[in-house]
Amino acid sequence: MQRICIFGGGAIGGYLAAHLARAGRCEVSVVARGRTLDAIRRHGLSVKTASEAFTVPVRATSDTRELGEQDYVFITLKAHQVDGALGQIAPLIGPHTTVLPPTTGIPYYFFHALPGRFGGTQLPSLDRDARQWRVMPPQQVLGCVYWIGAHASAPGVIVQDGAKAGCPIGELDGSDSGRVRALSELLCASGIDAKVNKDIRSAIWVKFVNSLSFNPVALLTQGALGEMAEAGGVLAVVKAMMSEADAIATRLGLAIGPSPDRRIALTVSASHHRMSMLQDLEAGRPLELDPLVHSIRALRDLTDVATPTLDMVLAMAQLRAVTATHAHTKQEQHA
Predict the structure, then answer these.
(1) Where is the Ketopantoate reductase N-terminal domain (predicted)?
(2) For the whole model, what pTM was predicted?
(3) 20 to 30 Å CA-CA from 80: which of 41, 110, 284, 296?
């Protein structure tokens, strides 16, 4: 039986782990901490969707040495948390382990197996001293894109936002490997739509640009997706940001299928969903903004493509992140 570890017990990690555990076709474990770890140990993981609700027991720990090497490891942390967790991730990874790192920003392995002049490029600003590259070698990586709108309403309780959810996976070279087919079948049998995508790099790009465009705007407006759609001019800014980013994709040789208009329409269809960065802002958590900023800057410098709208919106979002941190600190001091 395959051994699968979900490293991170938040909304996405909990969603995956609960579905896999309910299906009972693999050994599932979750690496969590604090209140989330305690909740999973006491009550299991609960998932609520538009069509069902279920609770399932799942093995949870804060010490990866208890788990040992896995067949598959999903890293469902925020992108800015991965570097600090590499020491805990390492015991899970053996020479035959397949790893699925987060793809909020451009992942460290993005140019591995990419044809053309940018193939094999490493971006030091995204992976300091190649730390992630060494712990999670690119040849052991599968790309994965989380189109799962969800939030944790309480520790260990995951609520899906919207009717649809999925996470396409794929080999970076587009091959139809045994490991990607096996994982796809396992996830699909567990109720998670995880089709094999033979151009997963372009799918990663689409998700990155979606987050790059919608999250900073959500941070500035503090609006749910439906509120953004109803407000005059907001989606025009999002479209301009997407178009600038896609110009970089063209320079890199990526084939981006869906137009910005189509991607925007699909995103705002989950009208009540609040983007993850806005959820973090409202909860007083650190914001996952730096991976987006560093990613687009690195790619802009690599390709020499101008991104004036992105630069402007991200500059304002960075200031909003700073002022939010100061406000939260003051609240804690007066509490």
Answers:
(1) 4-173
(2) 0.90
(3) 41
